[in-house]
From TrEMBL:
Name of this chain's protein: Cytochrome P450, family 722, subfamily A, polypeptide 1
Cofactor: heme
Lineage, top ranks: Eukaryota, Viridiplantae, Streptophyta, Embryophyta, Tracheophyta
Alphabetically ordered keywords of this record: Heme, Iron, Membrane, Metal-binding, Monooxygenase, Oxidoreductase, Transmembrane, Transmembrane helix
Gene Ontology terms: cellular component: membrane
One example of a Gene Ontology biological process annotation: brassinosteroid biosynthetic process
Tagged with keyword Heme: yes
Length: 496
């Protein structure tokens, strides 16, 4: 191995060097512009804009590069300034709000004052035509085209396919000394999403997609520097490779060289053909760019977030044996109803009331997506403070999920807290709310339930690394350890 800094350390050093240089330049002009910046701050959220040009970006990047994750940046400022505060990241003013009332006003967006807005690096990596970046009107059009893909009939087909993948994957765990849950979950969910979306389930293309999607995710919070060797540049190159695979599949199908009638891509292409022939009444199909950007978005959403949630769920259950005992009784009861030779169905999933609460509590406590950013389209007021047009307003979902006025003992893993489904509105935001609620919400829940059923009825497990450090540079909350476990196959004499 050459005697030099590892890639990630060299890259981190480069990022910090760039920011420090900018910071030094900012300091030179700070006192000059300070005298011209006497605008009253009495009515705007408390906080700090940091240094000119870079704001508090340096502190934000330090949090990303720590074992506590980027939410630590938010947590510390909320403790310092209160539940509504202002900061500056990547040159934009960001306001964080954490009340349920604010969450309702922003996510419902009945007044049309907000639009979804992610930082520049995310937008460039997933694509401008992605649901994540679309303007309100454009989002409505794209969502209308994609909604039918997540119908009940599609979900029923997917559950059986996913169950087969899980059974095959878990079958190889028995003779392994250690299983890293996050690594295995990523492989399973990537394969499931690629099969469902573009009928890729094995071979070279699946390996490329799994590898390059990971690079895209790792670059989402990087400085948007298009310089070879940077994390962002590597993410852009990964995006190009993914787009090439999707584009090739589209071209071959249009030429009749490839036909896969059951996957999402084919259904989108068929809809496009019908629109060209005037045989549709829903406004036409999606453009090629819209199809490609949103297939990439769905792969990321279905793979990365779901795999992270599965990993946290395994960790929480290991730490709470009394919860696992209740869950195991339910799942063994279901296993006795289902033939050992058949796969789970939508009806099976609906027969898991306690497991559904385990999934929901895992999502609450882990808060895989900790906040939802929106762009203020006009001046408005939030939590008693003035919000200016052009500011980014972030709904702090993690803070809502840990609100002691809503959840008793909020840091405790307690699925039974969801026995009463009439919980206070806008207190559970794992999938967002309003018009931009996650399209694949039911699919993600189904994946977690299928995984949970097969894992609990096949193995006992023990987590061998309880480290709760968060993976660096991740947009989603991932355990840095990956949650390594040892597994023991369940036999009749150990079943309670």
């Amino acid at each position: 191995m050459p005697s030099m800094l590892p890639y990630h350390e060299a890259y981190s050093f480069g990022c910090y060097a760039v920011i420090i240089v900018l910071g030094a330049l900012s300091c030179l002009i700070y006192h000059i512009i300070k005298s011209n910046n006497q605008e009253s701050t009495a009515d705007i959220p408390p906080g700090s804009q940091g240094l000119p040009l870079i704001g508090e970006t340096l502190q934000f990047m330090a949090a990303i590069n720590s074992g506590k994750g980027f939410y630590e940046f938010v947590r510390l400022r909320r403790l310092r300034h209160g539940n509504c505060f202002r900061t500056n990241i990547f040159g934009a003013t960001d306001v964080f709000v954490s009340s349920r009332e604010s969450a309702k006003a922003i996510l419902n967006n009945d007044s049309g004052k907000f639009s979804k807005r992610y930082i520049r690096s995310i937008g460039e990596l997933v694509g401008n035509q992605s649901l994540l970046c679309a303007s309100p009107q454009h989002h409505k059009l794209i969502r209308g085209q994609l909604t039918n893909l997540f119908s009940t009939s599609s979900l029923s087909i997917f559950i059986k396919q996913f169950d087969k993948l899980i059974v095959d994957a878990l079958g190889g765990w028995e003779h392994r000394s250690t299983v890293v849950i996050q690594d295995e979950a990523l492989k399973i969910t990537c394969k499931a999403m690629c099969k469902m979306l573009i009928s890729v389930e094995s071979g070279y293309e699946l390996e490329v997609l799994e590898k390059e999607v990971a690079h895209v995710c790792e670059a989402m919070l990087a400085l948007p520097l298009r310089l070879p060797g940077t994390r962002f540049y590597k993410g852009l190159q990964a995006r190009k490779k993914i787009m090439a695979i999707i584009g090739k599949a589209m071209l071959e199908r249009r030429r009749g060289l490839q036909a896969n009638g059951e996957d999402f891509l084919q259904r989108l292409l068929d809809e496009d053909d019908r629109a060209c022939n005037g045989a549709t009444t829903n406004g036409g199909g999606l453009t090629d760019e819209e199809i490609q950007d949103n297939i990439l978005t769905m792969i990321i959403a279905g793979q990365d977030t779901t795999a992270s949630a599965m990993t946290w769920m395994v960790k929480f259950l290991d730490e709470n044996p009394e919860v696992l005992d209740i869950l195991l009784r339910e799942q063994l009861g279901l296993a006795r109803k289902v033939s050992s030779k058949s796969f789970l169905t939508l009806e099976s999933i609906n027969d898991m009331p306690y497991a559904s609460k385990v999934v929901k509590e895992s999502l609450r406590l882990a808060s895989i997506v900790p906040w939802f950013p929106r762009l203020a389209l006009e001046d408005c007021e939030m939590e008693g403070f003035k919000i200016k047009r052009g500011w980014i307003v972030n709904v702090d979902a993690k803070s809502v999920h840990l609100d002691p006025t809503v959840y008793n003992d909020p840091n405790k893993f307690n699925p039974s807290r969801f026995d009463d489904e009439s919980k206070i509105p806008y207190s559970f935001l794992a999938f967002g709310m309003g018009g931009r609620t996650c399209l694949g919400m039911n699919m993600a829940k189904a994946m977690m339930l299928v995984f949970l059923h097969r894992l609990t009825t096949t193995y006992r497990w023990k987590v061998i690394n309880s480290d709760v450090s968060i993976e660096k540079w991740g947009l989603f909350s991932k355990l840095r350890s990956g949650c390594p476990v040892t597994v023991t196959c369940i036999t009749e004499n150990v079943i309670p």
